[in-house]
Amino acid sequence: MHPDLPAPIVVLAAALIAGAAMGGPRPHLGAALVLAGVCSVMTWLVRRHRRAALLLFIVATWGAGAAVQRLSWIRHAAAERRLFDGRDRVEIELTGRVVSAPERQTNGERAFRIDVEGRDARIALDVAAPQDADRERLDGLRRGDLILVWCTLRAPRGGPLGSADDARRRLLGDRLDAEGRVKSSRLVRRLESGGASIGRILDRLHAAAIARLDGAVDPAGRTRAILGAMVLGDRGLLDPEDVACLRDAGLVHLISISGLHTAMTVLVLLALARRAGAGAKACALASVVLLPALAALVGDGAAVWRACGLLAVTLVARATGRDALPLAALALSSAGLVIASPGLAWNIGFVLSVAATAGLVVGLSDRAAKRGPVARSLGATTGAYAATLPFVAHAFGRTAPAALVANLVAAPLCAACMAGGVLVLVVGRAGASAADHSVDALLAVSRIAANLPCGHLRVASPPPLLDALYVVVLLLYAFAGRRRAAGLAVFFLALAIHLGPLPMAPGRATVTVLDVGQGLSVLLQGGEGDVSLYDAGPAGEGRLDAGDRIVVPALAAIGCRRLDVLALSHDHDDHAGGAFAVLRDREVGELWLAQGSERDPLTQALAAEAVARGVAVRRLMRGAHLGAGSFAVDVLHPGQDDRTRPVNDRCLALRARAPEGPAILLPGDLESAGERSLLAAASPAAEALVAPHHGSDGSSTIPFVRAVAPRVVVVSVGAGNRFGHPGASALARLGSGGAAIYRTDRCGAVSLEAEARRWIVSVDAHGRAHEREHEDGEQECGDGAATPAERLTLVEQPGVASTKNEEDTEPERIGRGHPGPHALSDHPDGEAGDRRPRDDRVRPRRDREHGVTAVELPHGEEIHRRHEHTDPRRAVDRIQLE
Predict the structure, then answer these.
(1) 3-class secondary structure, 236
(2) Nearest Cα to 590, choosing from 574, 614, 571?
(3) Cα–Cα distance for residue pair 138/125, rounded to 1 Å
(4) How many angstroms separate the CA atoms of 198 and 438, rounded?
């Protein structure tokens, strides 16, 4: 065991935090308490046998952590019942006390928290951007004010990223019971001002500092956003592109106030106090008193409380004449915070902060790192990187090896940025130039690090066995004597996490309809390891980027590093929005587009992105026969005459046939007119069907369903979507031939494995149903093959807003049809539908060619790109297709 590392304290604290992390819905409170009590008694009985006693005490501590978390879960469940009374969404008038002053967001909205009076619940509210007259009134709210607000609250529920319990864990990790939205700032009214308190004073100081910062630098510039985040904890104005760049460089922690920022602040305060003549004990005790105020001033975040807790334990120990070993102080402070707020065990910021600090301490204590300052710094960054690796891989699906070196350069730049921010607060505009240069230098370093070869990687979530083995070896490295062997094992296990799973072994072809919420993405895996993708899920303003958060991780999970084909059905962002992330993070062989889509703006941008990355672009029309890896693909739609149809009715409709024989039809968002056009020119028969237009009543007409004659139907749909998908009439028509119907909002991802002339179905329900396989049989989580009358009771109620972990519905659109259930036709042919603004017929036009370069396409078609150097996602007018 390493002489400087107190293993028992660290292991016991880790057991308590692990118990809290694994607690919640289970185990039962009584079982956890009995386990903790029995093991505690047995610890006392075998106290002479130290190893056995320590092992039993570890189990007792784990049970105590689970019991504490269970109590918190029970309290949260009671608060949820009081707020929602079993409903998913409520519009309600609440009276509450403000617990955090409103924070400005990039879109002008305001975010703050309140404690609801009489309901013992804390909620977070997003308020629509206030108008000029209301801005000062809303921004004038302070801690302790009593307000009356009319808001819409959303209950935690399952979605593409996890189950309802996962959503509850996220809320508890943020110390919340619910989230809500206020449509207008006029719906927030202050009833009375709060009494004098330290919190109100800190809010005034925070508001004054923000006003000072806004007056000294450009309020909408990146310097203001970075300094606000680093100095004041004001993260609402950060540019997503800057955050992504810092994330890919492994430097995003620098803009989150945590240990580094808190330590710098405390050191400055101690230096000033010592300079004023205060003694060591007085300085330490004064710092302990000021730490909670500092945490409240800069945003009350989990990482801040971890840093303040560690410093408080260390300073108290020193003030009382005791040695404060870093890991012991970290263990005690972290365990104390989890006992006080058990949800912190689920807060990824808190977990990463604790793990990174522990790794940093171990890295600094390594004898090999004592050769010089550079070696010590590299040892510290390596320790922090190794300790956080499995958590980062699970939570974000990314790693940033560039951070090992980038942090060495960025740490002094971070200090310079903080000094520049403080200088701006003190002297105003006179310090703006220094602050600008510091921020520019930090972002320049992050761009260089992010663009290094293998500087950042998309990785699969490691399997539990690999995680457990990695943690055990890491603990052996920290506490055991044979550090070389353990270090070598850590290196190879870390390499395995970075490389991810091996490519798929030869086997049967599989088609997986991913659960991307209200959108579509279908993964086609050939038996020889080839992978293709039809659509890439939703992305866009205010929506979950399913390409980045769901599709790419799904590809990484099967060891896919290259797509043979990325096919996009049409120009709507719930199908094509996630394609940018796929093109960015995976090598793609060919991009398939429907003829007639080349003038649509989103398709133009995607085509430009593909050309810039060297991807071959094909424009397809009816009659083409192609190969997508092992799958034989027939293009059934659109035809030459479909080019002027509305967007949905000129979708790229494909029939993919597996080598084993069964076929699946992928019609995109075809509606009744498009289905008639397809039927007039081709036979769409297939053993499986992905329901057109997410099961809209305007699609899946009786002639179309009869012609396909599927035995399996999969409906890709988001829970509680505002369009009312899937429609009752469409479900009845889809099941009229006895097909088994599976829905991603109930089943999660749906996989179809090819067998001779049939598909074997299995589901992954995110905890909503157990995984099971059926051979084209009725699925418990779907709608089965019930009669139309029976189906009407199985349709989800539309119009329920989603929680933030599953923002799968589209932003409001104003179009010709209202996206509600009353706007959907029950006509058996489904003539009416939920149209979108651009779903009108388009006029054909002829574009002229200019001096361009060409990329080869089939049938003599070409995609041209002008020679200007520009961002292909923004300059869509520079892409021209003939």
Answers:
(1) coil
(2) 614
(3) 13
(4) 33
